[in-house]
Every structure is written in C-alpha cells, then in structure tokens.
Amino acid sequence: MKKAYLIAASLLISICAHAFFLKEWAEGRYMTGPGDGLAQMIVFKKMLFEQYMQGNFFYNYSFGLGGGVYSQLGYYFSVSFLFILTSAVVRILQLVHLAGEADTLFWAQAAVFISIAKLSLIIFTAAGVLRYIVKHTGAAFVGAVLYGVSIIYFRHEAYWEFFTDTMIWLPLLVYGAEKIIRERRPAWFIAACALTLINNFYFAYMNLIFIGIYILFRWLIRLEEGEIKKLAQFKMFMISGLISFGISAAAFVPVVYGYLHNLRPPYSGQIEWFDFSDNILFSSRIIVLPAIFLLFLFAFSLYRNRVFRLFAGLSVLFIMFHYSPYAASVFNGFSAPQYRFEYVLSFTLAGAVAAGLSQLSEIRWKEMLGASVIAILFYWYNEHRHGLDLTKPAYTSVILLLFLTIAALFVSKLTFKKSRLTVYAVIILSAVLIANIYQKYVLSEGGGLQTVSNTYLTSREYKGEEQMELISRLQSKDTNPLARLDWMNGVRNNTPIMYGFNGFSAYSSILNQNLLSFYWNDLNIDMGRESVSRYASMGGRANLYSLLYGKYFMTEKTNTANVPYGFTKIMESKHYAVYQNQHVLPFVKTAGQVYNETDFDGSPALVKEQAMLRGIVIKDPSGKTEKPPKLNNLISHSNITAKHAEYKNGQLTVMESTGQLIITPESPSKQPGDYYLSFYLKSKAKDKGFTLKVNDYVTTRKSNKSIYKTGVNDLTIRVPKTNQITIELPKGTYELKRFTLYEETYQTLKAAAEKEEQPAKIDWNKNKLNITYQNKENARYIKLPIPYEKGWELKINGKKQPVEQADYSFIGFRAQKGENRIELAYYPPYFKPAAAVTLVSLAIACFYIRKRKKPGSK
C-alpha cells in the first residue's frame, strides 16, 4: 500500500469513526466533556493560543493569581508539539479569514476536526510500525485501526484531549526499540523517546514503563535471526535513553519541577491487588476486547509465530494489569489508582491481531471451531455474570459483531485468497461501529457530552452576554491592566481566563505549591468548595483583597451577604452587581516593619493578615524583626449551644435533617467589621460529603474517601458582625473542636490604605516587569502581589538581587535608598541550563547516530 493510499485510508477510517460526533457537531453539540473539557481543555487552549500569538511562552498574570504557565501547564498543552502545530494552523486560517476569534466556543467547535486529524495520524503511524514488525501491509493497517479506533481513544479525547497525544509516540517507541534490536540504529529510539518526554512527562512515564517491559519480552522472544546481543542492546538503549533525556531537558526539567512542587495530599486509601468487576467484553468504559483477538487467543497454532506470541503475551499481561488497582496505582506514580494506561493494551491487542491476520492461512478448521466455541462461552459467561440486558443496542451489537467476525473467518477458510479482504472489512467495521455506539451511549448520553452545545456555551451558566457586557463596562471604566476582580461563574475556577479578566481563582492539576499552602495551611482561606488542584476567591476577607490588589468583587444580586467589608456597589446588570474596594493598597508596596515567619507558627490567620498589612512577613529575615500583633480570643467569653443536635467533648451529633451549633459572643465591640471564626471539622462518616453553612456563608466538604480531598480540616470562616454565629450541618456525627473567635474592626487595614506611598511606574511586557520607584522613606523592603515561585530573576539599578518569599507566598525584596529601577524577569525553573543541555545533547545525538551508521560500527 503506497503512503498516499495509506494516508487516505487512515483519514477515511478516522472520519467514519467520528460519524456520531460529526452528526452532533452539525446539530450544535460538541466533542468536549462537560467537566474538565469545559473547565480546562478549551480554556487553556484559548489562553495559550493568545499568549503564543503575542510571543509570550512563559508567564501569565491572569492564570489564577499569576503563574508560570510553561511549567504548570506542561501537563496539558504548553509544550505539546501537536497543540503548537494546531495553533499554527488556526493562525493561518485566521490570516486568510477562514477562522474567527479562537475563544472557548471556537475550540469546542473545532474539537471533532482536531480529533479526526489526530486519529488519522495515530492510525498511519501505527500502521507503519506494525508493517515493519509483521511484514504484512493489510494486516498491519487493520491492527492500526483497532489501536486508534479503541474506546479509550474516544474517552480520553472527549474528556482529557491531551491524553491521546501519547498514542502517537508509543508506536514510534516500539519502532525505535526494534531498530536498535534488529539493525543497531538508535536514531528512531532517540527521537521517539525525546518526543514523548517533551510532550508530556506523565504519559512518558507510562510509555517508558511499557517500553521497558517490551524490551524484556523481546529478550525472551527473538523475532529475527541476526539480532544483536542483549548486552550490546542494553548499552545502546542506555546511551540512547540518556541522550533523549538530554534533548528533552529544556521542556522536561521545568515541567517536572512544576509537578514536584505542586501540593497534593498523598493517597491514603487501601489499594487492592485485584478487582475483577469490569466487563471488558461488553460494558467497560475503558477497554473492550475485539472479538478477533479473543478468537486468535485460542487458535493455538498462531503461537508458533513469534510476533503473535510476543504481542499475545504482552496483551495477557496488560489485561491482568487492567484488573489490578495496584498496577493502576503504579502507572499513576504510586498514587490513587487511575486507569489511563490501557491505550498500551490497545496497542498490544492491535499487534496480536495484526500478527494473527498475517498468519490467517495457518489456522486449522478444528482450531477455528474450538476458538469460536470458547469465545462464545466467554461472552455467555460475562453476560450472565454481570446480568446484562442483551436487548440494549450496545450489547446486542457486540454479540452480532462477534458472530459476524466468526462467519467471516470461516468464509475465509473456504476461499482464502478472495475472502481475506472481507475479514479485514468486518474487523474494521466492527471497530468503527463499536466506537460510534460508545460515543452515543457512553459518552454522549451516559457521560453528558450531549449537554455541551452551542446554546450552553453561550448561556449565562457558562459564558453569557450579560456577564461579559458587565465585565467589559468595568474594564472600560478602569483600564489598569493589573487590577483584579473576584468572580467565579458557579464552580468554574478558570472563569477569569474564559472572560478575559484578572481574577482570584484557578483550576489545574499542577499549581504553585506556595499558593496552595497559602490557602490551605498558612491563611486557612475557605474556597467555598473543598478540592485539590484549585483555589478560589479570598473567603470574603477584605484584608487579603486589599493586599493582593483586589479592586473589585462581582456577585449575583441574591448573594450580597458575602460581599467583603469595605466594598461599595458601583455598577450592576439584571442579575449581577459589581462592588469596588475602598481600601485597596498599591501594587508596589513598601514595608518598614519586618516579621519573621516562624514567629507566627500556631498564630490565627487574622494575626498574620494584620502583620502583612503593617509590614512584611519574611522567611528567616536578617536584621531587626517585630513581634506578632496580639488579638483577644472571644471564644472563652461566648456561649455555645446546640440545636437539633448534641455537642459533647468535641463531638457534634446531628439527629434531625440539619442541626446547629450556635455561638453567641457576650460583649463584642460596637464597631462595624467582621468575625473570624476558626475550628477543626471532620465528618465521622466513611464515605459521605456534606455542606457546611456558617450564617449566610456556604461551603462543601469532600467525603473521607474522596481522592480529591485536601486533608485540611482546620477552617477559618469570615462572618459579618452579628449577634449570633450559627454553624449548620446535615444529619451525622462530626468531630468539631478547637474553636477560636476574633474580631476584626479593620483599623489596621484603614491605616495601611491611608498611608501615602510614592507612585510607581509599572511596565509589564510578557515575562518581564519593569518598575521605577522612589524610596523616599528609606523602607527596608518592597513587596508585590505576585506569587513567589522559582524562576524569577531580579535586578535593582542594574545589579542582581535575591527574590525573597514574602507574606507566605508572594514576592518581596530589599529596597535601595532613593530611586529603585527594578527589573523582574521570569523564566521557567532551570530553563537556561536545561536549554544548554538540550543543545549539547542534540549535537551528541547527531554524532552518535552518524557513528552508528558507519559500516562495522559496534
């Protein structure tokens, strides 16, 4: 089969495999998941595309509170060759006026076409690799279709689009390994290994585990005469692998650094060795075994073929891994079990089928009959064991395709030369039909993709005209590019990216650990929803808004009780209102009073806030430091009573649908302000989330078994001044203790806002920030509301200076007398030395590959 025909066939199969989603696209529904698809995939693509078009690759002030996107989004798209190529194509289409603004709606609409192109590439690549191994073009192409058109491809592409990129690199890794084993040529292995390491470190980990297993199997099963000795192979694999790591350094090192400096609680649940509940013949959401594979598995004469023996053995091993939560944990970095590695099983199944088809004439009649009976018994057993309703179209189709495959095989034995193509067609048809059935019943109807429509994506629930118009009015009124607005549309933490403003929230699997610690541990900021991989809002705490340049707060008109202290309404629409902070502090703030962070261990959050307002909190500062402010804990002068509940020895038992613990301060001051109520709260239920309500403030807590639970049970809730504070919980038993109650009258905030600061000249361009500031009062420090992370470089008046971690998670540095010409630049951690390693490794690779090509080289 010529390459042109192979490309055309791959594209045709890909289009047919997307038939359901193409029909949905025509009706205004899109191939994007309602969860992470809408919350992350299309949002990050919008943000990164806009950055790339501006020539900005490293930092984004609008990503949450600001962050290095090269490192923190390397898990997604920031270093993905496929996304960069897609972005280039989209830009060309824009230049020739065939595409409009690349917003979230655009990326949702484009998803099915991007998927078609990607799947075509996967099939084409896999077909080429399998042809090299099985020496049969038609069989290799059929196997490649089974690999590409597997249900795990569509599951991953719909929900977590970047997951499927690795399905391109996996066959290339196998090809590279074979080129070393058979021909002593390392170029393909070096290239494939480098590509997988650069594009996604997480799936590179899975791919490299697999290729290690593959090489071990190859050492046991020799496919050709003349393969080089194992020791020589080992040396070449080690050298090639090291060169690949070196080539990938510029992307791999900063991204892995970001991963290692994320903050996520370790998984503490029990992991079973085996769980056989999934039905991989009928109803699995991850992998469905092709009927042809099961038939070949029991055609024992095929085992005389070494290629079949290799891939069948690998397939059986990975089927066992699929049934092992412990293996799923290993593939997920020894964390919570995640079944994301089954694309590897799809490839080994494809290899086994391709090898079997290439030896189809060797299967005897009796073997075929026996294999058919055994396969039918397997399907019958699975149907009865799981109590499936075979009248459902999805299950009926599986049975019909099984018998159709068996019939095609028997026909091929009668007239092999004429009927081999019929077998191929039946297998391809089966794969395409199962893929479309899966798209309809599992992804669209069962997984919620049918709700992702043009109507929804332009509605008030996602990105509506009313909210966009109100934000545009605000941005026209205040053109300050650094001002922050706090608003989240529902529970979508990446709302600021979607709407194009600087916000206070972010949702990503990898985030700045300093910021997460700031929320969870240092300041105990409740986000309204307990969950890892995200942060949101400031819990209504006015001090923090002012410190972090939070000038505006937007909310539904029905939620005005949670407007922070000192914010006044300045504009509104039908359903929303915007409030302005009357005590906002300058972006560039000086500090004369210096506090040592360790002196605040065990201090309440309000004490830390007031210290940050008065000066700066530094880790291990030199010179004179101030003592932490002192506050009066009102809890010992408050009455605590239970309603519809019993409270004893730190345990609250709620007997009715809801119960309350009521705290009544005896003698609070008459000044306006807030209370800061802190307590420890943990449900005694094994597996049940719950809602906590403190007066008008509502937040949710995860089940104790949830893998997304933060593990932080110490809460601080800001409550507007009132006579009583009511903690309301649903029916159940809770550990509720360690109460503290402090009063905030905001005198410290007002004093900080009234302090006269010299105006600073600020210019932020891409990853570089230039500030000119006159330090007339000879303050010791300057601090900025920019998150501290490795990668920031600082010069003041042309001389390098250290960047310090200030106020727990932000940037601070020593100020100079008089004029301070401040130059801050952000580069991904270790990017410069890593880029040098990449360049050197590329040179070494060229030398090593050329040396291996020389006749007689060893």
Automatic annotation (TrEMBL):
Keywords: Membrane, Signal, Transmembrane, Transmembrane helix. It comes from the Bacteria. The keyword Transmembrane applies. InterPro entries: Uncharacterised_YfhO. The chain crosses the membrane at residues 73-93, 105-127, 133-154, 189-217, 237-260, 280-300, 307-328, 394-414, 421-438, 830-849. Residues 1-19 form the signal peptide. This is YfhO family protein. The keyword Thylakoid does not apply.
